[in-house]
Design brief:
Blueprint (H helix, E strand, L loop, with lengths): L2 E6 L3 H18 L7 E6 L2 H9 L3 H17 L4 E4 L8 H7 L4 E2 L1 H12 L3 E5 L2 H5 L2 H8 L3 E3 L3 H13 L8 H17 L4 E4 L4 H5 L9 E3 H14 L1
Parallel strand pairs: 1-2, 1-3, 3-4, 5-6, 5-7, 7-8
Helix pairs in contact: 1-11, 3-4, 5-11, 8-9
Length: about 230
């Protein structure tokens, strides 16, 4: 059995979800009563956000790379970063890594392509929605990602940083994001919404609009991790 390392804590609530869902997924596949070998290195989300706010991508790369190296020294044979936004520097972190890393972006792209969608809305932190690391990967697969307007991005980012990362999930914030999703469906004609922020499903999982799939990158990434563990 492989040992999976998880770069976690960014944010803490979604890291808890990763742990729980990886256990559930593994036990569903392996019915012998065994459990996967998991290691978690929990980072400081506020430090990561400060680096992003300062556009200190070199510092963020160093911070994440040090975490991966700690996991590898502890025995991890594969690893993942339990968040979307840090994948802004994924390529460089992977280049430095002594072990293979499972990309949430690549896993999400393969999942969306398998479903046959061609035009998908992109929700996440402001850092994720403004950046090109998701659209570039998806464009190579023939999928167009549509981000909300700048004003809508500001609303989502404020909710994400000011509430979700602090474990606050407010009904009015859920409704505000659902209104943005409704506009993307009606005006932008998106076929699905990619929740490219691992805290967003905690707010929206049971509140999604009918007939518009919400694609949960946490669960997609978890499925890729379970696949890697049981190979």
């Amino acid at each position: 059995m492989k040992t999976l390392g998880i770069v976690g804590g960014i944010g803490p609530e979604s890291t808890i979800e990763y742990y729980r869902f990886i256990l559930d997924g593994y036990r569903a596949r392996m019915t012998d009563g065994s459990a996967p070998h998991l290691l978690i290195d929990s980072l400081d989300v506020n430090r990561g956000i400060a680096m992003l706010d300062a556009n200190d991508l070199s510092g963020l790369t160093n911070y994440l790379s040090a975490s991966v190296e700690r996991l590898a020294r502890a025995g991890a044979e594969i690893a993942l970063i339990a968040a979307n936004t840090p994948h802004l520097v994924f390529d460089e972190v992977q280049r430095r890594s002594p072990i293979p890393l499972l990309s949430i972006v690549q896993a999400a792209c393969e999942h969306v392509r398998s479903l046959g969608y061609a035009r998908v809305g992109l929700l996440g932190t402001g850092f994720t929605m403004r950046a090109r690391f998701f659209p570039e990967v998806f464009a190579r697969a023939g999928v167009e990602l549509v981000a909300p307007s700048e004003a809508e991005q500001a609303v989502i980012h404020r909710i994400y940083i000011g509430e979700l990362l602090e474990n606050r999930f407010l009904p009015e914030s859920c409704q505000a994001i659902l209104a943005i999703i409704a506009r993307l469906r009606e005006e932008e004609r998106v076929e699905a919404i990619l929740l490219a922020g691992t805290e967003l499903p905690l707010l929206l999982r049971d509140a999604g609009p009918e007939a518009l799939p919400l694609l949960d990158t946490t669960m997609i990434h978890v499925a890729a991790a379970v696949d890697a563990l049981v190979k």
